[in-house]
Amino acid sequence: MHIEIPDKKGLREFGLIMGGMFIALFGLFFPWLFGFTFPLWPWILAGVLGGLALLVPIFLKPIYRGWMFIALILGWINTRLLLALVFYLMMTPMSLIMRLFGKNAMKKKPSQLESYRNLPHPRQPKQMEHPF
After folding, report:
1. How far, in Å, CA of 125 to CA of 23, rounded?
2. Fewer CB atoms near the end CB (10 Å): N or C, the chain?
3. Alpha-carbon gap, residue 38 to 29, rounded angstroms
């Protein structure tokens, strides 16, 4: 699994965005939402990330690589989880309801034909002169 590291500008944006997100989520929103005291650690972490982003963004490479590795793993898990949920919670009940009412989306039975292919009606050569 190869993680492509962005240039200085991309690393700077990463550091500033991550610092801002730590302040917004852990420094302001969660303490306000749950009634906790406002912690100091998100502000320190955001200051370090922001300072590195502005002064030496190249030092953010290992942090970026680790963050993207975690993001790839979470994306892989979420994709499988969401696809499974969509299939089992949407497609399966829909197919069971269609079977209950005797509907067949293919409009054919498997034992009837060798193929499910519907052959198109042959067109006259005159229709090909002005197809639209």
Report:
1. 69
2. C
3. 9
The closest of 65, 66, 50 to 13, measured between CA atoms, is 50
Give me 24's structure tokens. 């917004």
DSSP conformational letter for 41: H
First to last CA, the chain: 47
pLDDT, position 112? 65
Residue 58 CA to residue 38 CA, distance in Å, equals 31
The conformation of residue 132, written as its DSSP 8-state character, comes to -
Phi, psi of 59 (to 5 degrees): -70, -10
Report the alpha-carbon distance of residue 95 to residue 86 in Å, rounded.
13
In the block, tokens 């005797």 appear at 102
pTM for this entry = 0.63
pLDDT value at 101 more than 80: yes
